[in-house]
Structures are given as C-alpha cells and as structure tokens.
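Write out this protein's structure.
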Amino acid sequence: MKRTLLTVALCSLTGFSLGGLTLSAQPPKPTIWEKRAEERFKPISRTTKMEISQAQPSSSGLKKKKLKKPKRILAFWRSEGFIHTSIPTANFALQEMSRKTHAFTVELADDYKVFDKKYLKGFDAILFNSTTHLKFPEASQREAIQKFVEGGGGLIGIHAASDNFYEWDTGVSLMGGQFNGHPWGGGGNWAFKLDDSEHVLNRAFEGKGFWHSDEIYQYKPSNFEGEDNLRILVSLDMSKDVVSDRLTDPKNVEKFGKVYGSGSREVPVSWIRDIGKGRLFYTNLGHREETYENQAIMQHMYDGILYALGYVKTDATPTAEAGLLRSALAPAPVVAKEAK
C-alpha cells in the first residue's frame, strides 16, 4: 500500500500515466515581469471603461493660460512583488483624466531605463502606480529619481507605491512610509475621516468623512515619516467599531498584534509633503478596480496630482506644526432594519 501511494505521488509530480489515468504536473509560474503581467491582467470591459471615464473630473478647474502647455507625467507600473489587478484600471483612469482635463499628459512605462537623468528632464512628475518591491538595476537610477524630486519635480504614489524601496531608505522617505500589512482587507467597507476637512485637496469630500471598500495599509513604525513630516489629509476613522475591531480580531492579533497595538492609533491614508523644491502626493486608495469608478476619490486623486505637478499651491505644513485643524469623521454606519 505504501509503495502504491509513493508511485502515485511520483507520477503526479512528473506527469506520468498510471492505469490509464494521466496525471499532469502543474506548469511553473512565470518569473519574467512581462509574462507575470500577461497572466495577471485581464482586459477592461467596455462598460467598465465608460464608468471609469464618467468618474473622472470633467474639466481641469484651472485657468486657460495654465493649460497652454500641459505638464507631463511618467507613470511607472512595474511590480516585482505582488501584482495588483487594478494597475491597468488605474492606467486607463489616468489616461481618461488626462483626456478630459487637458491638464497633463501620461506616458506609461514599465522599464527601469526610463529612470535616466536626461530622460526625466522631459517630465514634471513621476507616478508609481501600485508598483511593488522595485529593484533598480543601477544606483544612478535611484539617484536620478531623488534629484528629480528635490530639484522641483512631482512624486505621486497610488496604493502599493509604498510597498517598495526595501533596499533604498531614501526612497521610503520620499514616499513617506513603507507597507507593513493590511488588516483592513479589500473586501471590507471601511470608515475614513478627513484630518483636515478644509484643505483644498480634500474638497471632493465636501467636508465630510466617508465609507469606502478598499484595502488599507499600515506602515512600518521604524520608517514612517509621520505627522512631524507629512500633512495628513485622510486617515481611517478608528472611532468606528468595524475599523478598530480589525485590530482585536483573533486572526489579526496573531498576525499583526505586536505591530499594530490598540485600536486607538492613527492609520493615515492620504498625505502630501514638500521635498526640497518638489512635492509628494500619496494615497493608499486604489487597490480595488471599483475605486476608479468613484467620482469623489478620483477628484481627490486628481487634486493631489495637480499639487504634485505644481499647478496648485497649498499648505503642506506638517500636521504636527499646522495648529488646530478641523477634522470630519465618517457618518454612522447604516444598519439595515429587520422586516416586520
């Protein structure tokens, strides 16, 4: 009996036939980026494209003289780690945002070669679209990004842009923080508060906190820049049990408890920062494809992009130094009434 089981196991691994039954070996997963992306991404349906397009701002909101020469964004979307299926959706949303507002053009890239000092001179901002575990082949590429931002360029991060730079501390600092797990998974509906409800980059939310389904990160305490260096715009509303309970759920306590601590801690979601002569806008929103169909979030993202591009001048004083700010919690959750 033991010999038979061993034979079956060997046959299943090698794809041999046993007694007329063909046991095929599982094909190895691709390791090359292009093949991994091809396996991971699916075409966006025509209906979804229409909904994404409709969610984008219908006009630039800028004076015409500023639009004579639209600014240029280099949108990088390569992933060496986990590949988010929302990457093509975000790319399309950016293209539609560009088409409808005429505020900027978008060049999509997934080859590290674009991070060349001379090549970057043709752009006004670098955008990392849910990139993960990026590993720049040459140190000069990291240096080119740093000098680009400090010299006046914009830096924009969408969702997993903070799951990067594990071999580049300066890159983590530029983005503001580094991924350290997500007890708030993409299948949940979470409450968000506005840390600064009157800030121009939060105008899309009309002074009110909100609820939204997305995957939300926490950041490594060891390298998160925090309120001393960042102007926090949006964060999780920890006053809502559905949000704070994620930190006391037994499964999450086992996995994250030593890191996340009590439910009273702050969990930032969107922030900005002046870096030298340049500007950073980062938002953790964007894990789910449906996020790019949300008009308010797309307006928030667009406004952040305008700031990073230098179109919009606004207060980026770190939250800890900004004085008294008016926050806005999410509304109470709607509880379904039982049928009589």
